[in-house]
Amino acid sequence: MNMSSLVRTGAGILMPFLLVFGFYIVLHGHLTPGGGFQGGAVIATAFVLLMVAYSYEIIWERISLEFLKNTETLGLMLFILTALIALVAGLAFFGNWLLGAGGLFGTPVSYGINPGDLNTGGVIPILNIAVGLDVLGAMSVIILTMLFAVRRDA
Amino acid sequence: MIGEFWSINAPALLIAIPMLGAFATPLLGKMGKTPRNLWILLITALTFATSALLAAEVYTTGPVIYTFGAVDPAVALVSDSGGIPVRIIFNVDAMSAFMALMASVVGLVAGIYSLPSGKMKSGRDGYFSLLLLLLVGILGMVCTGDLFNFFVFLEISSLAGAALVAYRIDKGVAVEAGLKYAFLSSLAGLIFLYAVALLYGQYDSLNIAVIAERMQFGFLDKVALALFLTGLAMKAGAVPMHFWMPDTYSMAPSAITAFLVVSSQASLYGVFRIAFTLYGLRLNYVTVGWFIIILGVLSMLVGVSMAILQENVKRLMAYHSISQTGYMLLGVGVGLAVLGDPAMMESFGLTAMEGGLFHLVNNAMYKGLLFLTAGAIFFRAGTHNLNKLGGLGHSMKLTMLFFIIGALAIAGIPPFNGFSSKLMIYESVFAFNPLLAIIAMVVSILTLASFVKVFHAIFMGPKRGEYAGVNEVPVPMLAAMGILALLTVLMGIFPQQFVDLMIRPAAGALVNQGSYIASVMGGL
């Protein structure tokens, strides 16, 4: 069953903001409170909002369980491979092999009080993104599976 | 080059390899059944090789430190840290290496045993992912040198274990068992976490070596100790916190049950590590030693007397697991009770501990073997009920042979490994308190009686019509049982060599708190 058009329109308006906010929390995990898990959970709530607003047939058609599972696997693989590359780079497992190396996340951190630079942190943002992908996939899979139970009862 | 890389990073690879395996299994599962099965074999074999390498290193050169995320993993204290290890450390001493080797052997066996899928066609990728994650959790618990890290790995093993118990949904009964396991494990984990918080508040560190060095044994430390022992004994299934064990063990797939035995023993390792290494001689060791002994005696008696009544073969074996856990608690408890008395320690305390630890590895082998044979019977006959089974000895000859080996070992009949460890426990405990040794022997006799009944009910008797089509289980399952049976026999024939090689250094590492602290703190 679809909710009223008021709810559906509201969900549609809120959806992009939720997604942006979620990805913001993931990407700024090394600077501000939050991180991969929290951001991934916020993104997953965006999917929950859609599931509340629209009927399960529409959700089932648009969002595939396989896609979400693949997202989860991608996040996990990104996480473990980032940790393993440190071994190849001659550091210990989970060593920060991007720290101060330049590039996207490799800017050296300036000393003292400063507003914070997104391009710092080395592998930490990468691990945050990996956890974010994993949590977003896993939580959505859980919720979709619960939706499946609703369908069978009806 | 690659060998050196492997040996430097062995503690990390011990965790990293099964974790990579678990995460990549869904991808391999998309390629089909054969690549995935080969992948599982490769990962569990590599994990076993890594733990063997690590054990060889630890047994020859002493404890190995691995600092995660550091530039040089072998250095726990960096120069600007003020003499405090700030990073997460794996501190692998002889005891840890011994447990890790045992866990990875059982992990390999559980992986091989699970390859034939039988009736369960769906969800196999998830099953293998969780199996490898359970292996990660157990290996992490036994290797870590950090209390909070121990809690994290405890939770990993609990959650993976709970999901695996519920794998065979079985009209919701298995789900109920899995839920029960999840609740009890989380409760145990939270009790443990609270105790960690108490210690962290006082000593400003989570590192076991640091807390052990600063330990005062004040009031809060006593509260923390009580919580540690309660939480971990609950997870290990000691009476009176054993009630989850029969439900969980009987409903889980058999390879998982064999593996959950090791998971419980990793919690026992936690009990020993907390008592000996974290508190050590500052502990009121006579009282705590007797507490562990009484837990052990209760577990032995209650476990075996409940086992005799059971009609479900896996429930019966689960009660025997409780009873066997009692032997380990008894042996190591006696060692703890005389920890401060060098003369008594020399004459029987160390032997009791060695007996307890030897029994721990023996139990993992023969109990795992027995659960695997129960799984093989279920695989072909489709039931665990002793009243319905019968006459299977005609068609499942190898399974019967493996069952005989396991049953004689658990009952303590020579020349199997259960005999050697039980003899060590009897002799040393008799010198400590004769009554305890007598109880242990009576329990052993009751165990034998119970397994004679099981053997007769399953394998003896004429061929039955309903099991006419039953034949031997697939080769991977036989191979898995064969590995454990071989180890059971070998460790029974050469107990002295095995104790000298593996067990004595492990017991020595537990007793020698100073060297554990020095391996972390002495680096600077």
Cα(first) to Cα(last) distance of chain A is 11 Å
Determine the structural class of chain A based on helices, strands and strand pairing.
Answer: mainly alpha
Radius of gyration of chain B: 22 Å
Approximate strand percentage of chain A: under 5%
Mean pLDDT of chain B: 91
Low-confidence stretches of chain B: none
Q: How many H/I helical runs of chain A?
A: 5
Largest interface: A-B, 17 and 20 residues
Q: What is the SS-derived class of chain B?
A: mainly alpha
- The ordered H/E elements of chain A are HHHHH
Work out the count of structural domains of chain A: 1
Tertiary shape of chain A: elongated
Identify the notable features of this structure and list them briefly:
heterodimer, A: mainly alpha, 5 helices, B: 524 residues, mainly alpha, two-stranded antiparallel sheet, 20 helices, 76% helix
Structure characterization notes:
The complex is a heterodimer of chains A (154) and B (524). Chain A has 154 residues and is an all-alpha fold. Chain A has one domain. Chain A is built from five helices and no strands. In chain A, helix 1 runs antiparallel to helix 2 and helix 4 packs antiparallel against helix 5. The longest helix of chain A has 31 residues. Chain A is elongated. The termini of chain A are close together. The model of chain A has no long low-confidence stretch (mean pLDDT 86). Chain B is mainly α and 524 residues long. Chain B has a domain of 198 residues. Helices cover 76% and strands 2% of the residues of chain B. The model of chain B has no long low-confidence stretch (mean pLDDT 91). Classes of the chains: A mainly alpha (154), B mainly alpha (524). At the A-B interface, helix 4 of A face helix 2 of B.
